[in-house]
Amino acid sequence: MAAGTSISSFQSRFTTGTIAGTVTNIGISPSVAEIDVTGLSDTDKQFVTGTFDGGTVDISCNVDLSTAVVQPTSGNSTTIPFVVQFGKGATGVFVPTWGFSGYIVKTSVSAEVDKQVTVNYSIQISGGITVASVQTA
Amino acid sequence: MSQISKAIFAVLNGAQTVTGLVGSRITPEARTQSAVLPCIVYAVNEDETSQALTGAAFRHAKIEILCVGDTAAAASSVHDVARTALQGVAGTYASVVILHCLHEKSLSNYQAPMAGETTGAFLYSAIFSVMYQN
């Protein structure tokens, strides 16, 4: 791939939805169920796909002073909308956005000697993911 | 001089236990040949930035504090007060926000007389890990 087509992660961010902390890593990994429909007479494996699963969004952050770490809440049925923009974007430079809704289902805070205090969040996506692109700086 | 150097100087120069032994002889990078001892020389060995996707990054520096004396005991005494002054420091010094300052290791050495000198110097250095923002 030509270098000019790559996207730097610099200034990737949540343009919708608030994450408590300074974000250092965002990982989204949707998947779909695979159903084996291979028949006895088939000589090759045959599959069809089942239900789409948005999966979890894993976010790593540095904990900021005076910013409360968010904990999961029980009995929640109202999803929170999020949009992640990958890369900074600029006039004429389109970068992808992924939009989804979900709940924070896991929070883990860590303090290690001679390191910054960090927090990892997991957001369970409920529903689909909307992929688009923007050129906002 | 870098911002973190100014902050480290401010901590050392503000500690009466340190200045009580070395006075104002706290200098960056090098000492003057044949200068009065004991003294402290400080230097930045590393200075890295830890980036975030957005928001405030912070920096991580390795600072060396070199305590110089005309006897091993004098160098050691300066080392001990300097170590105590810097260990665990957090706060704003010379407009730099020090998040932590942690002693990593120390070692002693002897410097043979340099050209024009009749006596050598005893060295006791300490390495600190400093996390800061500015």
Structure summary:
With 137 residues, chain A is mostly beta strands. Chain A has strands at residues 13-16, 22-28, 31-36, 47-53, 56-62, 80-85, 95-110, 118-125, 130-134. Chain B has 134 residues and is an alpha+beta fold.
Question: What do these coordinates show?
Answer:
The complex is a heterodimer of chains A (137) and B (134). Chain A is mainly β and 137 residues long. Chain A contains no helices and 9 strands. In chain A, 0% of the residues lie in helices and 48% in strands. In chain A, strands 1, 2, 5, 6, 7, 8 and 9 form a 7-stranded antiparallel sheet that branches. In chain A, strands 3-4 form a two-stranded antiparallel ribbon. The radius of gyration of chain A is 19 Å and the shape is globular. The model of chain A has no long low-confidence stretch (mean pLDDT 93). Chain B has 134 residues and is of the alpha+beta class. In chain B, 25% of the residues lie in helices and 44% in strands. Chain B has helices at 3-13, 16-22, 72-86, and strands at 26-28, 39-50, 58-69, 91-93, 96-111, 121-133. A 6-stranded mixed sheet of chain B has the order 1-2-3-6-5-4. In chain B, α2 runs antiparallel to α3 (72-86). The longest helix of chain B is centred in the middle third of the chain and has 15 residues, at 72-86. Classes of the chains: A mainly beta (137), B alpha+beta (134).
Biggest sheet of chain A, open or closed, and with what strands and sense? Answer: 7 strands, antiparallel
Give the overall shape of chain A, derived from the CA principal axes: globular
Reading off the top of the CATH hierarchy, the class of chain B is best stated as Alpha Beta
- Report the C-alpha radius of gyration of chain A, rounded: 19 Å
The arrangement of helices and strands of chain B along the chain is: HHEEEHEEE
How many domains comprise the coordinates of chain B? 1
Number of E-type strands of chain B? 6
pLDDT averaged residue by residue of chain B: 94
**Poorly predicted segments of chain A:** none
Number of strands of chain A: 9
Strand order of the largest sheet of chain B: 1-2-3-6-5-4
Task: Report the CATH topology name of chain B.
Answer: STM4215-like
Oligomeric form of this entry? heterodimer
Any idea what the radius of gyration of chain B is? 15 Å
In helices, the fraction of residues of chain A equals: under 10%
